[in-house]
Design a protein that fits this description.
Keywords: Signal. The chain is an alpha+beta fold. It has three domains: about 30 residues, no CATH class; about 170 residues, Phosphorylase Kinase, domain 1 (2-Layer Sandwich); about 220 residues, Transferase(Phosphotransferase), domain 1 (Orthogonal Bundle), CATH 1.10.510. The strands form five sheets. It has a five-stranded antiparallel beta sheet, sandwiched between helices. The protein has a three-stranded antiparallel beta sheet with strand order 8-10-11. Strands 4-5 form a two-stranded antiparallel sheet. Strand 1 and strand 2 form a beta hairpin.
């Protein structure tokens, strides 16, 4: 008689739901119900490919072999519309004629405005990586280059739900100060100067473009009040399970699959689409674990606690740094140097009645560790790390995420209690949450 595992695999391959034994029926039905939500999308880039991309970005290697479209596809900068501008980058919206596309494709162009001269790209004495800043601190401690992180994040998670599609990335080596140059001359640099050889610290203009998801904000423009946008509130009311699934898939992509963590968790970081229902993270999260963190030498033995600091031994909760106030739902620093558990005036707009996850507020707990020579285990007090399970708690408790859908769906409501368990190991994974909604919800 053929083993059960063979029968299950054969059923999956042939697309059959027929079974030979009654004892296999429930398992096969579960497999049939899972899925349309868990498809394998684009293949994950290899470590060698991401290394080639990184070497090119830091001017240590040639442009990698990628599917990026050529820079000449960008229209003249007079057709760019400024969307936003911060300390580190400018964001523009435009259109481009692309091969295989009948109509012009809406795209987002991002331009780094960071002064390359403040960076140094060689090995730093005492540093474990090749990123540093003018003050000599290694990348893992100060001044993380957000443009580099964003390109690696987009390339690594290409094709994953909730991750915008990276269309291209371009470097200019021209001499004049990019911060003062107008857009036309900046674009000319990309086309005319990108092949020019220059010293490392002369990289001046750095552009990357993404396919515009044409999404809507999930919150109104009022920064200090939680007020869902019309589109987002309508989707939560009319398609609660579909929207909940889109949110779970987005968080699964960058945290559970990619090893990233979003401490700056605010409504402004996301866009929502109506047809199909989608949920997109538009700014890069921080690499905490996984391939990109390893590539950037940002991995730590025990993970990260709040404020981007590696997990360390502790004696009390006060020894463990919290995350940002709107994420941990805790107040400003008190005399002890640790954030309190009372909501601050700002964080209360983004936090529900459950507050932040214990590990986000700073949690010291006993961890079993092995020790030689007999590899016996003993308990060591250590800060709880921030992981994808922390985001499970976030998604279940932040009132602008799944609780908004739970007002209109019993299936979403049933999912939340386990997601907000105080113990991270007791919370389900994002994949398990998605499977639950596919079985219990009606999409």
């Amino acid at each position: 008689k053929r083993p059960a595992c063979w029968l299950i695999w054969q059923a999956v391959l042939d697309g059959l739901l027929q079974i030979e034994c009654m004892q296999h029926s429930l398992l096969l039905l579960s497999i049939a119900l899972l899925p349309r939500a868990l498809p394998t999308s684009a293949p994950v880039p290899t470590s060698a490919h991401l290394r080639a991309v990184l070497d090119w970005l830091v001017l240590k290697g040639p442009k990698p072999n990628t599917s990026w479209i050529p820079g000449e596809s960008l229209p003249n900068s007079s057709a760019w519309t400024l969307v936003s501008q911060g300390h580190h980058k400018q964001v523009f919206r435009t259109q481009s004629h692309m091969s295989g596309e009948a109509a012009p494709v809406p795209i987002i162009v991002k331009r780094s405005t960071r002064d390359a001269k403040k960076r140094c790209w060689g090995n730093v004495v005492g540093a474990t990586d090749f990123f540093c800043w003018g003050d000599g601190h290694p990348w893992v401690q100060r001044g993380r280059p957000e443009d580099i992180i964003e390109i690696l994040y987009l390339e690594y998670l290409r094709g994953k739900p909730g991750v915008p599609e990276l269309l291209g990335c371009y470097i200019s080596y021209c001499e004049h100060d990019s911060a003062q140059s107008d857009l036309t001359s900046a674009l000319t640099e990309v086309r005319r100067c990108s092949a020019k050889k220059s010293r490392r610290n002369q990289r001046k203009n750095f552009f990357w473009m993404l396919r515009d998801v044409d999404g809507s904000p999930i919150n109104t423009d009022n920064r200090y009040h939680l007020e869902p946008s019309t589109v987002y509130e309508s989707l939560a009311r009319e398609k609660p399970v579909e929207l909940a699934l889109a949110i779970l898939k987005c968080f699964r992509s960058f945290s559970e699959v990619g090893g990233f963590f979003l401490e700056d968790l605010l409504p402004k970081q996301f866009l929502v689409t109506e047809t199909p229902v989608g949920f997109f993270l538009i700014d890069p999260p921080e690499p905490h674990s996984g391939l990109v963190a390893t590539l950037l030498n940002a991995s730590t033995p025990h993970g990260y606690a709040g404020d981007g600091l590696p997990v360390k031994p502790c004696q009390a909760h006060e020894d463990c740094p919290p995350t940002r106030s709107h994420h941990c739902c805790c107040s400003s620093f008190n005399e002890s140097g640790r954030m309190g558990i009372e909501p601050s005036s700002l964080s209360r707009y983004y936090c529900g009645p459950y507050g932040g996850a214990p590990e986000a507020m700073g949690h010291c707990k006993a961890v079993a560790v092995s020790q030689p020579p007999a590899l016996a285990t003993r308990d060591q007090m250590r800060c709880s790390p921030l992981t994808a399970k922390t985001h499970i708690f976030d998604v279940a408790t932040k009132p602008w995420l799944l609780p908004l859908m739970a007002n209109h769906s019993q299936a979403v409501r049933d999912l939340l209690p386990q997601m907000r368990d105080a113990e991270p190991s007791m919370r389900p994974s994002f994949s398990e949450c998605i499977a639950f909604l596919h079985k219990k919800g009606s999409v």
